Task: structure prediction
Amino acid sequence: MENRTVSGFDVVGFSTRTKNEDESNPSTAKIGQLWDIFYSQAASKLSADSLAYGVYCNYETDHSGMFDVFACSDSKALQELSGTRDLSIEPGQYLTFSATGKMPQAVIDLWAEVWNHFSADNCEHTRAYTTDFECYKSANEVEISISIK
Result:
């Protein structure tokens, strides 16, 4: 885990609104479907240099409330696709966790590490609940950056 200053950047992609409680139930989960849409409609528009991102923002409260999720990329070519939205990643301090392995299990395991870190009694970081994001660096490498105060 590494504390980083992010200067902010723009992404384009598809979005939905959900909450963690709904994501734990397959009949109400939306994030998997969102990624299906992203890959079916956007994959052909991505260049070899494009990065895919999962972004969590517009938090209603904290991890228990509603929030927006984006399946997106830094590729401006996605702007020509119907149903996409532009989003700016907020500049600020982020705590970044990294993992390599087979997807999606590597990202699922990394989120468990994130949750464990922030729920620990001796955690020295406080989540800001502004913008959090996953960056898929390659087919088997992911980083999760959590905004902190």
Remarks:
- The first strand starts at residue 2 and ends at 6.
- The longest helix spans residues 105-119.
- Strands lie at 2-6, 9-18, 52-57, 67-73, 85-89, 92-100, 131-138, 141-147.
- Helices lie at 20-23, 31-42, 105-119.
